[in-house]
Design goal:
Layout: E1 2-10, E2 16-21, H1 25-32, H2 36-51, E3 60-65, E4 70-75, E5 84-91, E6 97-105, H3 115-124, E7 128-131
Length: 141
């Protein structure tokens, strides 16, 4: 299934971007911008993912690997609100790695991935992303 995404930020050091699926952009960006606490944490997480050599750490982990796509999760406040954003990691033809926020889970109740969440992640593996060429106001996040 073809999907478009918007690039929110680019790394200054590495061939990486963080973007958001256009179909869920409004929901995810409203959530991330809902309070000062979320804005500051999101800024920290984006910087850590983009500017450190090893992108994986406690709050950003790869959880599934399929043939051409990796599914990872951003954990905003794992010991508090426990919200998750599931992402697709894809490389384009120029070997630029895109981390695309694709699914928001506001309240995750279990530590493990349940069958319901597993089914939602299965859908993500079929997405074929293409960067949208329209501009986007990055001041929203």
């Amino acid at each position: 299934m073809r999907r478009n995404f918007i690039v929110l930020r680019r790394s200054r050091r590495y061939n990486r971007t963080i973007g958001v699926d256009i179909a869920v952009a409004e929901e995810i960006l409203q959530f991330l911008g809902s309070s000062r606490k979320y804005i500051e944490k999101t800024d920290y997480l984006f910087h850590r993912i983009l500017e450190h050599r090893n992108i994986y750490f406690d709050n950003y982990k790869r959880i599934k690997t399929f043939q051409r796509v990796h599914i990872s999760e951003i954990r905003i406040f794992p010991n508090g609100d426990n919200c998750r954003i599931y992402c697709c990691e894809v490389n384009d033809k120029n070997n630029l790695q895109h981390i695309i926020m694709a699914k928001l889970l506001i309240k995750k109740k279990d530590r493990e991935i349940t069958k319901k969440i597993e089914q939602q992640l299965e859908v993500l593996k079929n997405y074929q992303y293409e960067e949208a060429k329209s501009g986007y106001d990055q001041s929203q996040i």
